[in-house]
Design brief:
Oligomer: single chain
Number of strands: 0
Structural class: mainly alpha
Distance between the termini: 41 Å
Helix content: over 70%
Number of helices: 7
Radius of gyration: 25 Å
């Protein structure tokens, strides 16, 4: 027994220490969850910002994919085959992105005017060949700059959910 403290006092101190440890652990979990969520949104935004470049990259190799699809390679080797494997992964990823963009377009097309505008902004900022600036979109859609940025942010969140599934949802309990 610690000098001057009763068993009951030690028990209370232990319980308080345990409660504090639990609170600290829960805070750590929340921070990790938030970082993971932020990473998914950042990755989705990067993917959309580089969508045209990735599409162009993939269009060059569509015919070569079948040749390398079944090849098993040592990733330590830097060969033409290993580079093709990376390119193949990019093509597969972009096909998934394309499918999710079709789903998102359909969903927004059957939604409110705001949802239709949101998809239009996403498409015109990132997906089409002749992309628009925020200023051009403001003039074209007769909306404020804040609306374009807000709709873009919301569209990126929506796409992240489609790409990452339930892991991209932020549940509030």
């Amino acid at each position: 027994m610690v000098e001057g403290l009763t068993k009951n006092q030690l028990k209370i101190i232990s319980e308080l220490a345990a409660q504090e440890a639990i609170r600290t652990y829960e805070k750590t979990l929340l921070v990790e969850k938030k970082e993971k969520q932020d990473r998914r949104l950042r990755n989705t935004e990067l993917l959309l910002k580089n969508y045209r470049k990735l599409k162009d990259h993939c269009s060059e190799i569509d015919s070569e994919i079948e040749e390398f699809e079944g090849t098993i390679l040592d990733m330590q080797e830097l060969t033409i085959e290993s580079l093709m494997r990376y390119r193949y992964k990019t093509v597969k990823m972009l096909k998934h992105v394309d499918k999710m963009l079709i789903v998102y377009e359909w969903d927004c097309g059957h939604g409110s005017e705001e949802e239709k505008r949101r998809y239009s902004i996403l498409k015109k900022r990132y997906l089409i060949e002749d992309r628009r600036t925020v200023k051009e979109l403001c003039e074209e859609l007769s909306v404020e700059q804040a609306t374009v940025y807000r709709d873009t942010k919301r569209a990126i969140k929506d796409i992240a959910i489609l790409l990452f599934g339930i892991d991209a949802l932020e549940f509030k309990i």
